Amino acid sequence: MVTVIALSLDARARASAVPSTSARRRRRERHASARTAPRTSSRARASSNEPEDEGPGTLTIDDVLRASPAGYGATLGMALLVNRALSGTAPVADASSAQSRADVLGLVMAATLILTGFTWIALKPRAPNVVDLVGASIETPYVTERASAELREELAWTWDTARRATNCDVMAVFTSSGERVMQAGIGANALGNPEVLRADVTLGPICAAAATKGEPNYLANLILFPGRVEFESFFPVNTQAVCVRPIGDGAVLVIGSRTQRGLTPRDQRWFAAVAQKLDVALDRGLS
Predict the structure, then answer these.
(1) Which spans are transmembrane here (predicted)?
(2) What is the CATH number for 146?
(3) Helix crossing, 98-122 with 61-86: angle to 10°?
(4) What is the number of domains present in the chain?
């Protein structure tokens, strides 16, 4: 009898451990929906300029750090007052007393910290200006007909990687003679005509210096520089930042962004390494 009961319980346990057909179906549906759900790239999350929906009164880490000097100063001031009250010293400041002189110095330091905290709270840094670039969209990156298949792959990799890993929104490569080797992203309005894309460009002093003398340049807030007019022939007129990198001694890489100060020092070092890589590819791939 005991054996029969044990076998019955074991059979029930095995039956309960095996998922039903409906359970297996629901599990497969959940796995399928998880695989097909859209994923947001790390660059899209990092470069998203939409403010987070924070409720009223929500404190961020930046707010706490800015207010910390005021908190430290208030704590210091209260500690000095408590120490003064408990030490039995007369409440009137006496210049001949070392305790009074130390308390005065401590209160001055506490007041300085409190004022510093209030100043940091009032002066919050403004977010970089981000705009929608106005111009002709170059859906398929333009590459000169003289480029070999290997060079085309190299330029396509450069553009794809730059727009995913950095705040690069437009890119162009020119030779020192003004030949347009490649351009991608959003260009000037005139570049909506394919014939204009095939035409040479007159390089301005900034791009010419990079292509012939190897002088890099970074214009973090392009609107403040009078030399921005030289980029308007191939980039949108409202481009916010431009990085110019020499490619060897005969070409130039120009990167534009829709964000002011959007290209970090790390991005610029990466562009310099890419320019060295493109130097070899251009020597081999332009016929």
Answers:
(1) 104-123
(2) 3.30.450.40
(3) 160
(4) 2
pTM of the model: 0.62
CA pair distance 119, 66, nearest whole angstrom? 8
Give the pLDDT confidence of 126-175 residue by residue, as tens digits. 777 888 999 998 888 999 999 999 999 999 999 999 999 999 999 999 99
- Give me the amino acid identity at 12: R
Let me know if 179 is exposed, middle or buried by CB neighbors in 10 A (0-12, 13-18, 19+).
middle
The domain in which residue 67 lies consists of: 61-122
CB 250 within 8 A of CB 176: yes
Say whether both 254 and 179 belong to one domain.
yes
Q: Do 181 and 71 share a structural domain?
A: no
In a domain? residue 53: no
| 245: in domain | yes
Strand pairing partners for 175?
Answer: 251
Nearest to 240 by CA among 99, 144, 134: 134
**Of the candidates 281, 243, 5, the residue with the CA atom closest to the CA atom of residue 143:** 281
